[in-house]
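Hey L., structure's done. Input below.
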Amino acid sequence: MAQPVVDIFIPCFIDQLFPQTAWNMVKLLESLGCTVRYNTNQTCCGQPAYNAGYQKECRQVADKFLEDFSSEDSDYIVAPSASCVGMIRNAYSNIFMTSSNFVRYRAMERKVLELTEFLTDVLQVQEIPGARLDAKVTYHDSCSALRECGIKEGPRRLLGMVQGLELTEMQDTETCCGFGGTFATKFESISVAMGEQKVENALSTGAEYIVSTDTSCLMHLDAYSRKQGKPIKVLHIADVLTSGW
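Output:
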């Protein structure tokens, strides 16, 4: 296939807290033959405002996102976050339903993909040369990836391409980790209990790392683990697929 032109969307929390994950995604895409572009005007997808009930403010952010990512000369828009992709695919449909920009949104929305589904469904990656992580890991199905984007087997296939990596499934892998954005602050005790359950299930596998498509989930689980002194770490799948380079 021709070298695809990919506009990348970097979620605000990755931009501010985990920039290396963004760089690793860029390295990975370029190594697989993509032309990667980054629009420095981009900000947030609007999900925090939308989930908190600030519809008007979210519409303003969504309008800006549409403006930033409506370039006709890009083939795909790829993000290392199923949460943000789910927001764009689902909530934006409601936001733009009565807008004159609805057709323009639909044209843009068709190009939006989460990183792992882009690798498996579009590039149809069969190997990732040089990827190596000598560790036992377990995979967490984020709610957004599984329920909003239909992503399940793809990330596991990609992890199987990493030399030295042993993947073991935890109990209740499809159960929510308890983060849920503002849910974690509004219902702290429930959120912490759900995080505890997820971490304990991961620990029972003997894994050294919890891996996921969503840094938001990993951030929540990592905070719980560090506070409680649990011997497990977290890694975004983009970081795993570029390990050993």
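Strands lie at 5-8, 35-37, 76-79, 112-114, 132-139, 163-167, 209-212, 233-236. The radius of gyration is 18 Å.

-- N.
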